[in-house]
Structure formats: C-alpha cells, structure tokens
Write a structure and sequence with these properties.
The protein is an all-alpha fold. It has helices at residues 13-28, 35-42, 46-57, 61-79, 84-90, 96-107, 111-118. The radius of gyration is 18 Å and the shape is elongated.
Length: 119
C-alpha cells in the first residue's frame, strides 16, 4: 500500500555524486584543482558535474574552491604569524595579485588589514 503521508528517504544519485565532488574539493582545495579533474575522478562529464554542482550549491565549482581558499587564508591570517605570501600559497593561491584582489573583494580588507584587525 502506498502511503504518501510517510516521509521516505529517497535515493538521489546526483546528490551523492555532488557530495563526493564536494569531499574531493575540500580535501584538495589548496592544490591545483579543476572541474575536469574532479569530473574524471567521479566518472562523469565536466558539464554534467558543473550543472549539478550549481543546482545543489548555488555556485560554480570554481567559486566554491575560491571560497574555501579565502576561508583558509582568513584562518591563517588570524591564527598564525606566517608571511602573507606563505598564507596565499598554503591556501592554494599561486598568484599574489589574484590573492590580494580576491581577498579584498570577499572581505573588504587587504590581507594585512585583515590580520591587523583580528589582533
């Protein structure tokens, strides 16, 4: 008998796929990483992965990677005294000009200002 009033857990293979993609990104965000590599690891097409990720998380994979990198940079700036160039490298950003630009866009402060504010 079918009971629509029962709340059954539905198997969502796409959701599981995206959760696996998210796990790969979280474990590798500070290394060179791109959508094509993630798709290959998961055995799906690059475009399919991009569509699903955007659908479930409301942002692109690249935006998510940048978000993780900037969160790590902010954490390093507030909890360590390592040089700002080292912060960028540890967060996975290879270009200092990109690092400064993106960090300021996200926080409204330069990395140095952010560090000083957190003291």
């Amino acid at each position: 008998m079918c009971r629509p009033d029962l709340n059954e857990t539905t198997y969502e293979p796409n959701k599981e796929l995206i959760e696996r993609a998210k796990e790969i990104i979280i474990n590798s965000y500070n290394k060179p990483l791109n959508r094509k590599e993630i798709a290959q690891k998961l055995g799906v097409s690059n475009n399919h992965l991009a569509r699903l990720f955007k659908h479930y998380y409301g942002m692109t994979i690249s935006e998510y990677i940048i978000e993780l990198r900037m969160e790590e940079a902010a954490r390093l700036l507030t909890h360590t005294d390592i040089e700002i160039t080292e912060v960028a490298l540890k967060a996975g950003v290879k270009s200092m000009s990109n690092f400064y630009k993106i960090f300021k866009e996200r926080t409204g402060l330069t990395p140095k200002e952010y560090r000083l504010k957190s003291l």
